[in-house]
Design a protein that fits this description.
Helix content: 10-25%
Number of helices: 10
Structural class: alpha/beta
Largest sheet: 9 strands, parallel
Number of domains: 2
Strand content: 15-25%
Number of strands: 22
Distance between the termini: 41 Å
CATH superfamily of the largest domain: Metal-dependent hydrolases
CATH topology of the largest domain: TIM Barrel
Length: 436
Amino acid sequence: MPALEITESDKIYKIVNARLLLEHKIVENSYLWFQNGKIIHPQNLFFSARRDADEIIDAKGLLVVPGFIDTQINGSYGIDFADHEEPVDVLKKNIDKVAKGLLQYGCTAFCPTIVSSAPEVYEKVLPLLNHRKGTATGGAEILGAHLEGPFISVLKKGAHKQSVFKDAKNGIKDFDDVYGSELLKGSQAVSIITMAPEIDGVCDAIPDLVARGITVSMGHSACRIAEAEEAVTKGSTSITHLFNAMQAFHHRDPGLIGVLGAADLPIPKNGASHPEASNTSPDRQKPDPRPFYGLICDGVHVHPNSIRIAYYSHPTGAILVTDTLSAAGLPSGIYQLGGSEVEVVEDGAAYIKGSTTLAGSTITIDQCIRNFQKFTNCPLVEAIEAATLHPARLLGIDKKKGTLNVGGDADLVFLDDSTGEIVVKRVFVAGEEVKR
């Protein structure tokens, strides 16, 4: 009887001579198997299919980790996701250009971010940012958009245009009116919404947004600690770029930052979209009720000492984000962010032109990991998990992203950490290697 022909999609791959990040540990001299873009268990091959690997991939001692996930990125390579003036076919090509460019840094999935905009912007752009699988040739996976505003505070507007700011006195209806019909798709179109909990009606709308599968993040806010804790109890599970665009920490009312020290928030009934327990959790046996928090680790947005304080107070809540704008990957100069002019100076920091107001970064996600490890002196595993497991848990996709567990997507990054700092060497998206 002739042997069955194995198609390319059916091929079984085995990674050998690898050090794998598994279950919060680095496992030496291990193997990883994948097929059809998914990580598989070899036992089923031997005892059911009676097959061995069709192709061996020699990791040559490199560290193999899940693909990095960036939940806040406004654009790169001269492209701003809030740009809506070009024809749709041009916008699609621009999105593809960013998605492809991110792969070189190990970023295999991302949330394209739109700063506060008018309804017509969302109407045109959001359909282009729906969830889309990643490929080695097509670019990083799109996880749905991150909508940063316009339900935010005038007092902490940052680089956002105040003229489009909204309140939510009519609850979820106001969100639907601003974002349009795409919001009804839930996380298929919109993965995260950043909002200020003190704005009229915002807290009341949180349960409705969460019911649609949308992650609610607190940010660009002048809220007090009580308002922040109310938002968490109603379903908010994240803080957008901690320390930036929020009240400075004060010992009598620590504001939004103070949620990291909360000890009496209700314990989640299940662990979905919540940080895992740590030594600082209110209950060390159950998921942590405190929210995740984004950190821009470029050394400009947040002082290293502040990042260290946040990490030691709530280690499993840290999520590394780039918050890059259109200037990322380009030289110093003047660029666009949501219709505003932004100036990038020599150290890579971006400011609203003619001011000292920060307006995003130009850092890469692999550099964020290197900086985070250096700033906090945390173990390498924890630095990597802040860009893999933690964002996956935040979005409720940790069954398929952020780990190397069986059944997960074969989004893989091969790292050389021989110098003590990670260097991206190889990248796979859905089991297919990216040509470098």
